[in-house]
Design goal:
This protein has 233 residues and is mainly α. The chain is 67% helix and 0% strand.
């Protein structure tokens, strides 16, 4: 994966350089130590949410996992709703923007759009191990707390725009007309996020038939998207 892409997809960098983010409640206005503590709490929350779900994770559990007191956690985030809002703003919004940019950058090339999107999901999941299991648990599920929160925040305009692009590509003969547009993204998630999210189980079971690495998963997904099941011509 390229260094430039990783820089553009750094989920912890939401503000442009030399622009100071507005202070949130409880967030220190300066100081490296305070910033590092806050990022540690966000990372801990994400890892717990990915492992056991948002609804089943209390703020006290996050504090214990992070090795801080509940009072310290409440200093940075007054409640779980505020914590979720910060996570969406700083960790998930960049993913959403990157996904949408793939279609804008490849308006006339659906194969390039979907192969690049597959690679981006894999790169993000490799850099941030919480992403794949959390996305499957909390965004792909109709009852996921994160999905409900993101739907309230963003609506479905981006999804509708993507489906419109797929329909246009099919009408122009650039994409297989037999494909169901609404299933394409689920298929893409199944080829990328699902094997990445379940890889730890495969490895812990010493199962040699499981996915071996992110590189193998990426190559497999892109080969299917680019060439289908038939031999390359």
């Amino acid at each position: 994966m390229s260094d430039s892409f990783l820089r553009s997809m750094d989920l912890t960098a939401m503000t442009a350089q030399n622009v100071q983010a507005p202070r949130r409640p409880g967030r220190p206005s300066g100081g490296t130590k305070g910033t590092e503590k806050r990022e540690h709490l966000l990372d801990t929350a994400l890892n717990l949410f990915a492992r056991q779900g948002i609804a089943d994770t209390s703020l006290n559990a996050i504090a214990r996992e992070a090795g801080v007191t509940p009072a310290m956690l409440h200093y940075y985030f007054h409640n779980r709703e505020q914590l979720l809002d910060v996570l969406i703003e700083e960790r998930f919004l960049p993913v959403r923007l990157a996904a949408g940019s793939v279609f804008d950058a490849n308006a006339d090339d659906p194969i390039a759009a979907f192969t690049q999107l597959a690679q981006r999901f894999i790169d993000i999941s490799t850099a941030h191990p919480w992403f794949a299991p959390l996305w499957l648990r909390e965004v792909m599920s109709d009852n996921g707390v994160l999905k409900q929160r993101m739907d309230e925040r963003f609506g479905d305009a981006q999804r509708k725009a993507a489906l419109k692009s797929i329909t246009r590509w099919q009408a122009e003969g650039k994409l297989n007309a037999d494909l169901e547009p609404s299933l394409l993204f689920i298929t893409l998630f199944g080829m990328t996020l699902l094997p990445l999210a379940t890889a730890p189980k495969w490895h812990s079971d010493n199962n040699s038939h499981g996915p071996q690495s992110a590189e193998v998963i990426a190559r497999h997904a892109i080969a299917l998207l680019s060439h289908g099941l038939g031999p390359q011509r």
